[in-house]
Structure formats: C-alpha cells, structure tokens
C-alpha cells in the first residue's frame, strides 16, 4: 500500500489510494480549479495533436501481420470455451445465524469518494461496519469525484428497494437521515470539527477498532459519520459472518436501477444478435447467419481506460510525438506539480516493468495474438480515449465489429445517462458482467471489480501480463509468430482460474475462499 507516498495528490487510475474526503476538500477544489484553468490550453493542444500529429501505429510490423492473421478453428474453440469447472461455487447463504440486533446502537453514516467501483467496495464495507456495531445504516453518500464529476446519488445508481430487501435480515437500512439528525450533513462536517465525525479510521481497521472508537460515539450521540471511509475495514481476521455479509452486499444486494439494467440488456442482446441490426441488407443477413462458429452470439468486452489523466500520470511515451509529450508533461505539471513517481523513469524502464497502460493498438495486438479474429464482436467499455478516433482506428482495423454504447443505442436511449460518468460506468459494468470474455487494458478499480465479480460467477477474464507485454513491445525485431507464441504462453494461466485470496488482498477481487466454497 503506497497510501502515504502519494498523499493528497490524487492518482487517476488507482482512486483507491486517495486518502481523505473532507480533509482534502481544499486540494480537490484546487485540482478542479486547475483543471478548469487548464482545460482551455489542453483542448487547444489536443486538437493540434489530432489534426497535425495523429498518433501513428507504433508497432507497424506486428500490425501488418496481425491484419492478415487467420486463427485456426482449434484456437477459436479454446478461446471461446467457457472456463472449465474448478469446483468452486458461491457459498450458499443458508446460515440462519444472521439476525437483526434487538436494538440499534444508532446511525452509521459514510461518505464515499472515488469512482463507481471504489464506492461499491465502500458500500459493502459500510454494511459490514454497521453489522459489527449493531447500528442502522443510512444509505451511503457518494461524493462527487474531481475527475468524473458525476453527482448521481446512491438511489440514482443502485436499486435501493432491492438493497434494503436483500439485507433485511442482516442489518437495518434507512434511506434518509431521521428528522432528529437532519443536521448531520456533509456541509456540517466540512465547516468545523464535530464530535460525531470519525475522521481517523485507519486504513484496514479491525472490527475491534470500530467497537472501541465508533461505538462510544454512537452511544453518546446516536450517530457517527465516518469520513474518509474508503478501505477502512480490514480483509483479514474478520469473523466469517462479516465476510459473508460483504460478499452478499457486493454480489447480491447491489443491483443497478431498472433503467440501467434495461439499457444494459438491450446492449447485450444487440451484441448477441447482430443480425437484427442488418435487416435492410438481406445479403448480409445470409452471410452472417451462414457463418457457424463457436463464437456465434458471443462477445468480448474490452475495458479501455486511456484518458488524458491516465496517460499523463503513467508518464509513458504513447507515440504521439513531441506535441503529445509536451501536452502530457504540461498536464503533469499543472495537476500534480510534476510530482509523478513514474516520471523519474525512462519509457523503456516503465515498459519493461509493466507500468504503462496499453494503448488501443497494443491491446488490439494482444487480442489478435491470443487468436481473436476479425469476426470477433468487441464491446469497448470506455469513457474517453486520449487522442480520440485517431488512436482507436488501429484497434478498429483489427476488430471491425467493434461496438460501444453509442453505436448500439440511440441518442434517446442514452439520454438518461448522458454526461453522467457513474451511470455510464454502471452500464459498462452491466455489459461487462454479462460478457463471455472480459479483458482490461490497464489494471485499476474496474479491472479488479470485474476480476472479482466474474470469478464469483466462474466467467472467463483475461488478465494481461503487463510486464511481458511491455517487454515484447520493446523488442522491435520480434516476428508475428514469435510474438503470438509468447503472448499465448504468457496468458495461459491468466484467464480466470481461481486464485485464493492471500492475506492483505481484497475479498472483492479474490472472492475465494470467503465468498466461494469448494464443492
Ligand atoms: C477478415 O480477415 C480475412 C482474412 O484475412 C479477410 O479475407 C476478410 O476480408 C476480413 N474481414 C473483414 C470484415 O475485415
Ligand atoms: C449486537 O447484538 C448481538 C445480538 O443481539 C449481541 O450479541 C452483540 O453483543 C451486540 N454487539 C454490540 C456491539 O452491541
Ligand atoms: C534487431 O535486429 C538488428 C539487425 O538485424 C540487430 O542489430 C539488433 O541487435 C536486433 N535487436 C534486438 C533487440 O534483438
């Protein structure tokens, strides 16, 4: 955990490591101001990049071969085959041990920062803490993230009735602050030191820490507001019923609101039944339906987090030439005052350590080498791609049947989620969890959340070997077949096979053995 190193400087793709909520308000505000200030400069430089210096493919030799690739049937079968049964299943929640406390010790309130996937873990932990304390949970407050800027509330993202109903035998949950505590707001805590605020919960605090430090607050005041709360509950040395409860929240109680699920279902169905979209072109229908293969009706989700924030923070060279290098360096300077750990290393060092997020071109080459051919239906789960279409076009050349929210759903269908990062992320989460195969171009919160949730459901998830890929891409002499072979071999055991959680690791990424049982 490198929590203390980065301090208050927020980390774009490991939101989880950012510390305080209200104590860092000032810094966040400053960040936002700086971002606004910088927006005008950066917009200008982005357009220069895309107009005059479009990022060119960096691995053109590999790319040429990849475009001509032809995957064998055998390779295709292996690739699309569901994960072999590993003897692990979600534990059956039959314990009757769980019951509501006779009397509530008071109200627990939490304020959650980070993106949607980090907040999700905070919600699970909040339920566990309420259970440990025999307290009533107030529906968690979701902070507005300085990068994503979405003010959607818990109720606008998650189905609150479902949440309360699934947990009704475990803890009491209320939607809103009761009248007598209506003063206990975010603003109240932001303006002064307050006795009901628990500010110093250590990272990965034990259950006893809460009993010793928060229970007295509850008993004195009837309410305790914990902030910051992200990553404030340990994964180790927890009673089994608390662990099971965290699993239950993450995998059962948290369901998106109906309109997100409906849109998600529509996207999934259009990905699975592409012929419906081609009704006007009769030739194409027969062509598509005649093509019987193992992948019929199947799709891969590629999560691509490659926005400017991420690109700048990683300090790698992404092939956009001088203009891009300059723009990213400037961004680092403005947002983090140049204090980016990675910028002390050369691009080569970063790559061989696997610390560079893969570009759309690179993840495309990885997928092609694994055997995904050009008839693969690829859904792009992505917010903004730095460099825009110029950068995505290489990936699109490799996977012409690439889709995204925009290409699959009409403007009207997308109206309710437009410009709302958390809702957009929720739709991508939904489409991702329903996919046959999921892969992420950079490890981060979404990647971890999917690895965990898909492991729980025994679904295939490819975890890119970042260090291997970095090294392969540094070697400019590699032939396509050498590259292919190295990629296949390096990913054989990275397709979703069960990995037992080790001490210190997150139960939300490694659900076995806490949430999963061996048959
Ligand atoms: C897919 O690749 C094959 C073989 O290289 C090629 O003949 C075909 O035109 C490609 N299809 C598309 C849609 O690009
Ligand atoms: C919570 O309630 C249970 C059962 O009602 C009781 O055994 C336990 O001691 C209580 N814990 C606290 C912290 O009040
Ligand atoms: C690549 O090939 C060139 C010429 O064949 C050779 O000089 C160079 O050492 C090779 N580089 C690597 C990394 O193998």
From TrEMBL:
Q: Which residues form a coiled coil?
A: none
Predominant location category = membrane
**Annotated pathway:** Glycan metabolism
**An example Gene Ontology molecular-function term:** glycosyltransferase activity
What UniProt keywords are attached to this protein's entry? Carbohydrate metabolism, Fucose metabolism, Glycoprotein, Glycosyltransferase, Membrane, Transferase, Transmembrane, Transmembrane helix
- Location relative to the cell: Membrane
- Report the membrane topology from the UniProt record: Single-pass membrane protein
One BP term from GO: fucose metabolic process
Is Nuclease one of the keywords UniProt gives this record?
Answer: no
User: Record's GO cellular component, any one?
Assistant: membrane
Claim: Transit peptide is one of the keywords in the record: no
Q: Which family does it belong to?
A: Belongs to the glycosyltransferase GT106 family.
- Report the PANTHER family cross-referenced here: O-FUCOSYLTRANSFERASE 2-RELATED (PTHR31933), O-FUCOSYLTRANSFERASE 31 (PTHR31933:SF5)
The protein in question is named: O-fucosyltransferase family protein
- Biological source species: Lithospermum erythrorhizon (Purple gromwell)
């Amino acid at each position: 955990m490198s929590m203390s190193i980065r301090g208050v400087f927020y980390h774009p793709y490991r939101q989880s490591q950012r510390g305080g909520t209200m104590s860092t308000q000032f810094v966040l505000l400053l960040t936002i101001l700086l971002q606004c200030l910088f927006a005008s400069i950066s917009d200008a430089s982005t357009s220069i990049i895309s107009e005059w210096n479009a990022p060119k493919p960096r691995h053109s030799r590999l790319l040429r071969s990849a475009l001509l690739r032809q995957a064998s049937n055998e390779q295709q079968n292996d690739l699309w085959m569901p994960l072999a049964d590993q003897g692990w299943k979600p534990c059956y929640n039959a314990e009757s041990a769980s019951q509501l406390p006779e009397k509530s010790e008071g109200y627990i309130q939490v304020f959650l920062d980070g993106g949607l996937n980090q907040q999700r873990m905070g919600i699970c932990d909040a339920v566990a803490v309420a259970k440990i304390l025999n307290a009533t949970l107030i529906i968690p407050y979701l902070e507005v993230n300085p990068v994503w800027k979405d003010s959607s509330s818990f109720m606008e993202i998650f189905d609150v009735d479902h949440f309360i109903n699934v947990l009704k035998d475990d803890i009491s949950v209320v939607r809103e602050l009761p009248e007598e505590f209506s003063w206990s707001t975010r603003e109240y805590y932001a303006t002064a030191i307050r006795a009901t605020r628990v500010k110093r919960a250590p990272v990965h605090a034990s259950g006893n820490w809460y009993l010793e430090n928060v229970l007295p607050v509850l008993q004195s005041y009837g309410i305790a507001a914990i902030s910051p709360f992200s990553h404030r509950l340990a994964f180790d040395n927890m009673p089994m019923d608390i662990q099971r409860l965290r699993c239950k929240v993450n995998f059962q109680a948290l369901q998106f609101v109906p309109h997100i699920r409906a849109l998600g279902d529509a996207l999934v169905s259009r990905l699975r039944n592409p012929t419906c979209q081609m009704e006007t072109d009769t030739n194409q229908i027969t062509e598509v339906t005649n093509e019987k293969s193992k992948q019929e009706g199947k799709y891969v989700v590629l999560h691509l987090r490659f926005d400017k924030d991420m690109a700048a923070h990683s300090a790698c060279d992404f092939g956009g030439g001088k203009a891009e290098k300059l723009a990213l360096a400037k961004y680092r300077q403005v947002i983090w005052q140049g204090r980016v750990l990675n910028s002390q290393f050369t691009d080569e060092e970063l790559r061989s350590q696997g610390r560079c997020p893969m570009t759309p071109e690179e993840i495309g080459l990885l997928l092609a080498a694994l055997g995904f051919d050009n008839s693969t239906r690829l859904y792009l789960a992505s917010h903004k791609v730095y460099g825009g279409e110029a950068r995505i076009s290489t990936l699109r050349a490799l996977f012409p049947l690439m889709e995204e929210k925009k290409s699959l759903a009409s403007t009207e269908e997308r109206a309710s989620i437009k410009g709302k990062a958390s809702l957009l992320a929720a739709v991508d989460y939904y489409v991702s969890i329903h996919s046959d195969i999921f892969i992420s171009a950079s490890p981060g919160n979404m990647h971890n959340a999917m690895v965990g949730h898909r492991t729980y459901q025994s679904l295939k998830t490819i975890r890119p070997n970042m260090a291997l890929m970095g090294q392969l891409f540094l070697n400019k002499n590699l032939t396509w077949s050498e590259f292919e072979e190295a990629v296949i071999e390096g990913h054989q055991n990275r397709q979703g096979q069960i990995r037992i959680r080790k001490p210190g690791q997150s139960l939300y990424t490694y659900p076995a053995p806490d949430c999963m049982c061996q048959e």
